[in-house]
Amino acid sequence: MTIEINIFTKNLGLTDDIRKKLTNKATKLNRFLKQIDEARIDLTYTKSARDADDRYVAQITLHGRGFILRAEERAENIRSAIDQVIDKIHRQIERYKGKRFRSKADFKPAREILIKKMAEKGKKDDTPLIARRKHFTLSPMDELEAIEQMNLLGHEDFFIFYNANSNNINVLYKRRDGTYGLIEPELG
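Request: output the structure for the sequence above.
Response:
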């Protein structure tokens, strides 16, 4: 299966040499993870960067069946930024494959692994841990009712609700500028 590769630039000219390099490197990612459908590559030159070493930005986003992986790197030239972002996305692919394709025989409960690691280190670990699970009933409502409920309940960050208009579960969140955003998930 071939990957659809989309390359976008901002404040930067794209030479044939760089396009060829990106296409080759993005195509090779398919060797490591077969489910990649699309690779979006964004190259940017930022003149106002504080440090001259951070002026060139390379970002790659991989879309596939059931996952999205994204990496961004900054460097003093575009070629270095490209090499660094490819290395970074490769590490993310390996980490994703390790989590996703681990065989059932090797499976151990996360709690057991965390307790063992914490005992070995003798200090707190930075590994994320689900501290609490919450179950609740969703009532159908429209977006305006959801905003009202969010404010009435004192939820300042987000509110999950069943959208009566779209018959889907949506997430309403408050943006920094005081407006609201709506996340409408779709199954992939």
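The chain is about 35% helix and 30% strand.
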